[in-house]
From TrEMBL:
Keywords recorded for this protein, A-Z: Methyltransferase, Transferase
PANTHER family (UniProt xref): 23S RRNA (GUANOSINE-2'-O-)-METHYLTRANSFERASE RLMB
Lineage: Bacteria, Pseudomonadati, Nitrospirota, Nitrospiria, Nitrospirales
UniProt-listed InterPro entries: Alpha/beta_knot_MTases, Ribosomal_eL30-like_sf, rRNA_MeTrfase_TrmH, SpoU_MeTrfase, SpoU_subst-bd, tRNA_m1G_MTases_N
Keyword presence, S-adenosyl-L-methionine: no
Name this polypeptide is given: RNA methyltransferase
Entry keyword Transferase: yes
CDD domains attached to this UniProt entry: SpoU-like_RlmB
């Protein structure tokens, strides 16, 4: 079993209206403090939801949000504790009989990482696995880009995704790499059961050693002049095409 551990971030602060509201609503996130810098109808809703959860609300000035840098914080932030960060063993134990996972191979851009988490949550993915090194951590930027999905989808941080891939293969889970050079067209892949989709960075794609561990590889046919997709867009196409194929097999 791959070495894995609980993975924190830089202070567990999140910001932005949607991420904070989703954190308050989620059973997988514990919110200990909400800070707001202005009052309006949406902030009143946040304050009311915080009161229902017995979460204190602190009124702050605009300078308070400088800790997040030059970002769109929308005048609200929250201090949270995550409950959806799982060890590899916990992830496997909590997954259904035919799970679908996403494995990230060095996705270092936090915007892409957050967008992938949003897509994964919407597609009902049973877990996103990524490395503790050379991958964007769960930061405020990732939280905001994910629109709160980072608080819902099960997350698993491992020291080496190659060990995680080997363990998943031993359990009969198909490892499917996204490879625009050597992959078969997605529509012809016939992937309908349990699977783990491996996504590489936009610049380099999958590392050779990771690609060699995959059982199969797929590509998304492109018909325009631009020869690549944003990795989060590719993730959405892969995951929902898998849903479509699985539906037609079981229907």
């Amino acid at each position: 079993m791959p070495d894995s551990k609980k993975h924190g971030d830089d202070g567990n602060w999140i910001y932005g209206i949607n991420p904070v509201m989703e954190a308050l609503l989620s059973e997988k996130t514990c919110v200990s403090l909400v800070c707001i810098g202005k009052t309006c109808k949406i902030m009143e809703k946040l304050t009311a939801e915080a009161a229902l959860k017995s979460v204190p609300v602190k009124i702050v000035d605009k300078n308070y949000f400088g800790r997040f840098g030059n970002v769109t914080h929308q005048g609200v932030c929250a201090l949270i504790e995550r409950r959806n960060l799982l060890t590899f063993g916990e992830l496997i134990d909590s997954a259904p009989s035919k799970p679908v996972f996403v494995i990230l191979d060095e996705i270092e851009d936090p915007g892409n990482f957050g967008a992938i988490l949003r897509t994964a949550e919407c597609a009902g993915v049973n877990g996103v696995i990524f490395q503790s090194r050379r991958n964007a951590g769960i930061t405020g930027v990732v939280e905001k880009t994910s629109c709160g999905a980072a608080g819902y989808v099960p997350l698993c941080v491992v020291s080496n995704i190659k060990n995680a891939i080997r363990s998943l293969k031993e359990q009969g889970i198909l490892i499917c790499g996204a490879d625009s050079d050597t992959g078969v067209p997605l529509w012809e892949a016939g992937i309908t059961g349990s699977a783990a989709f491996v996504l590489g960075s936009e610049g380099r794609g999958l590392r050779r050693t990771v690609r060699e561990l995959c059982d199969t590889a797929v590509k998304i046919p492109l018909y325009g002049k631009i020869k690549s997709l944003n990795v989060s867009v590719a993730a959405g196409i892969l995951l929902f095409e898998h849903k479509r194929q699985a539906y037609h097999v079981t229907a």
